[in-house]
Fold:
Amino acid sequence: MVITGYGMITPIGKNSRETFENALRGVSGIDFLSSFETEGLPCRIGGQVNDSWLNPFPARGLKGIEKCSSRGLKLMISAASEAVESAGLDLIENRHRIGVSLGYHGENPSLEDLLLLHRYRDKDGWDICDLARRGTYSFFNFFRRKADVATSILSSMFNCRGSNLTIVSACAAGTQAIGEALGIIREGRADAMIAGGCESNINFMGFVGFVLIRALSERYSSPGKASRPFDRKRNGFVMSEGAGALVLESLDHAIERKAHIFGEVLGYGASADAFRITDIHPKGDGAAFAMQRAIDDAGLSPSDIEYINAHGTSTLQNDHIETLAIKRVLGERAKKIPVSSNKSMIGHTIAAAGAIEACLTIMGMNNSVLLPTINYEFPDPKCDLDYVPNQSRQLEHGVALSNSFGFGGQNACLCLGKFHQ
Amino acid sequence: MTATLDSLSYPSTDPIVITGLGAVCSLGNSIAEITRGLMSGKSGAQQITDFDAGELAFQAAQVKNPPAVKTDIHPQLARTMGKHLSLLLPSIEEALDRAGIGSGMFDSRDIGFFAGMGMVDYHIEDLLPAVLKSLNQDGDLDYDRFFLSGYQEIYPLWPLGMLNNVAFCQAAIHFCLRGENCVFSPHGDAGIAAVSEAVKVLEEGKAKVALAGGVGEQISPFSLARARLKGLIRPPGENPGADIFLGEGGAMLVLEPLSGALNRGADILGRIAGFGFSCHREEKPGCASRRAIASAIEGALSQAALVPGRIDLIMAGSSSQNELEAVHEIFDTGGEAPVMVSAEAALGEILAAGPILNAAIGLSIPDSTPFPFCPQSSVFRLLSGRPFGGSLHARRILVNGISYEGRCASMIVEKVGETI
Structure:
């Protein structure tokens, strides 16, 4: 299974090239938030995508669709447009053999929604009938909330009439979307799939939920220093937004149409912690199992793995347990294998993370470089692997894992490979 | 009961078979109860009494008393998961019981779990206290007050109410399901996608057994408003006799390779024969296009290596004209077209659970049971084929799942009862 196109939009770049080049230099995309009021919040930083980077909403005969489109979808349209263009997907004639697999969760309610809803609340509860009768709550609000609307719009926009999946597994969604697309092509149900994820929680209601559960970093000397995966002074993740998209194809199909091949998806594994909704399994059982499954699925052994793009969220729990899980899978080799976290620069883009990180992993392999984990200053004795601290590193490597672990305990891992002609 | 490999009609090294079924819907808390209800002509449609649905809808097929499955979940967290959890847990429990799978029989990492999970909605009561605390004397929002302190009144775990995967993860915890998994959202096609992914994982040997199915939406002011605004349901009294109403339900299948099922002496309830998927939306009437639905059906027939004439029963996934036209296009080939029915008149539109429940019902109705299909039936509304009053020998059943955003999926299940 090969990758013939990719695209992304992140706080450090309007496309994959810009994102990769900035990541290579260790540029942080984290700053004080400007898109909503953060006064009084214990965390006031995040990773925002510059509005001017978003593609103008394409017409493509989709009149009125923009109103249904959440910011997450708009980000995805930018990433998917880049991926589709680089893959030359428009040149494929049989559109029924092209599908879409998207990890996404839909748009959060806005404060304005709450104000409106408040007006229809009385002592007996919430009077939605009155709300519906007056027509003041837009039809389109419901549609921006529905994640599958985004997938269907993408399908329409890029004329993909094959399998169409919307995957809602929190932070694992982007990786699962790629894994499921891989399976669909392997089964022969599609020739090509657009797969990836998108998310935008950089709005008050989306953000405040994570503030209230104290998941976000609250102690930082400057915004760019806040996301510090595997560092002893890490104290929470940094919320971010973005999108990543890959075009996957069977090798035969790609060769037949003479598509440029950027890399391979060698294997995929998923698992569930089945431990506690709000906690990761303390020994990393689920994470280790997903990694092992991806390696097995690729027909490889742990000794073949040369790099790991970590989930690496910068939370106390994740980074410690992910380290444990990597050691369980790689054994004695674990300390020799470079592991880095793109979230140190980009922040956590939730459903988009797995797709963005898969793209960056492939680009790293093709450029023989490991992207760094920035802000690594104070080693944590519990996190004792080679995290590629602060500086990118030249290294020829051809097989990598990319981890994503979702809230609730869903784990997913991709095994990616450099394509050899 | 045991089956043999050569008793199945299609070539396959190790077909994926159904060894367990479980469901909860307005007609009952088990497949047997639901089937009995349908055969006796019952409909689950009732007036909505939980809340004032007013002009949005007057009836729905709600699950009033889902069976209690004992869990140690904090009540507030359980409330966040809403009815999703209380529909999912008993469906899984029944399916596992039916399959004879008890705790410890399989390594938990060898059990896959895939589900289409219907839309979930945040709870307004989790959020509104923040607004109420921040109002000024004129009743307008004091933004300074809201951002400085009011927001702290928001229930911290409110975002979980918007995550379709939370009830799924809780079910994984409850039944210790640690294998390959995925959550799809939120319409009928999602339930079929879940079964398809489970089959793939079993065929690849990544799991020894898998649970796959779906759960629809909880009927709430939000879900009614969404369906009403979309035009899925009509206001009470408008176009009487053709009213579509929402239903609640969950349905789950236990799937495993035939060889594994035979080795452990499991009952073989059916076989998954094929799938097809497509996506193309028409502006009007705003659902999957005829061509997309036809493409999904053709895909399922092709994977099952079946010609249309070998399908005995079609369980419709929508009330759309597009689906009917797609079926006519494929099945009206000169011979006798299969009977096409909809159970929505009894069960309502159950979204992600719908096709799975339809498949379970189709597999559970004994061949010798007479039951009427007619256009006016309050149970099995005949959409295509000739009116039928005898017993239907429905060995191969095509179930469709149609999304109102353009996605569609078809699945063929095959009874193997006669050959075992």
